[in-house]
TrEMBL record:
HAMAP family: Mrp_NBP35 (MF_02040), NUBP1 (MF_03038). The lineage of its organism: Eukaryota, Metazoa, Ecdysozoa, Arthropoda, Hexapoda. This is Cytosolic Fe-S cluster assembly factor NUBP1 homolog. Pfam families: ParA. GO terms for cellular component: cytosol; nucleus. The keyword Translocase does not apply. [4Fe-4S] cluster 1 binds at residues 12, 26, 29, 35. Its cofactor is [4Fe-4S] cluster. GO terms for biological process: iron-sulfur cluster assembly. Binds 4 [4Fe-4S] clusters per heterotetramer. Contains two stable clusters in the N-termini of NUBP1 and two labile, bridging clusters between subunits of the NUBP1-NUBP2 heterotetramer. One of its GO terms (molecular function) is metal ion binding. It is found in: Cytoplasm; Nucleus. InterPro entries: Mrp-like_CS, Mrp/NBP35_ATP-bd, NUBP1/Nbp35, P-loop_NTPase, YlxH/NBP35.
Amino acid sequence: MADVPSEAPEHCPGTRSEQAGKASACAGCPNQTLCSSGATKQPDPGIELVKERLSTVKYKILVLSGKGGVGKSTVTSLISRVLADSNPDKNIAVLDIDICGPSQPRILGALGEQVHQSGSGWSPVYIEDNLSLMSIGFLLGSSSDAVIWRGPKKNGMIRQFLSEVDWGNLDYLILDTPPGTSDEHLSVTTYLKGAGITGAIVVTTPQQVALLDVRKEIDFCRKVNIPILGVVENMSQFVCPKCKNSAEIFPASTGGGSAMATDLNVDFLGSLPLDPLVARCCDEGKNFLTEIPKSPTIVALREIVTKIVDKCESDKENLVE
Ligand code: SF4
């Protein structure tokens, strides 16, 4: 397929759609000749490039959330750090493709790091010996810079991120995606088609409004054939760091994530209590495993990570081919 044009009009019907080059929005578009020739409808060579690049990655896991504000990026970094810590012989990496709000560099303590490019691709930033990170945040001038990109350019960036990072041999690649079910999710799913997605972890909070959105996310996964590793309920309780008493922040009026998971026939991986000390470590990019190893959040996390590892290693037959 020819390169995705970056100057497409706002109402571009999609370069691979039946209407490509023929819709009224196409009139005057500099790509009209190319789109109407049918060249843009050919299979995207990016799929093969991504497959080749990720052939050295054993498990590819998407972290999804139905809505923003449920702590998806924090949960991604928590899981990744614990996964790396409890499996020192395995290589873990985080790919932050939350294009509109990349927060992994801050949470994983890599703000201001530079990404280097070599003949074999972009080199990720190392957080620990066996934990690396690539994020769109590294390509922005400052952490407050806004990323305002339209469809084709976002698609192109996702393709580059999936096909041009030189990860080396990896056991786990954890992908932090934007909230909801947007074009970015479709791009990721499309490009990972050849390489295979091991499964998705869906993050929610216990209250009804978040659970409703999670149902849509699970429906999306089923429609695009992404196996669901399970649901993680974040901020299930607030644990006071001083007196250790706990309180519900979001009352689970309908039974919370566990009841929803049972209802939708997906696994419930566990609940993560909110420990403000863990939240502070994430804000400051510190390693909570060394700062507060006895936090109830970390105890719960270790159990969740064990379940994820068990599921990945036993669910090989569920790989999307
Ligand atoms: S000509 Fe192609 S890029 Fe331009 S608007 Fe139409 S489909 Fe989109």
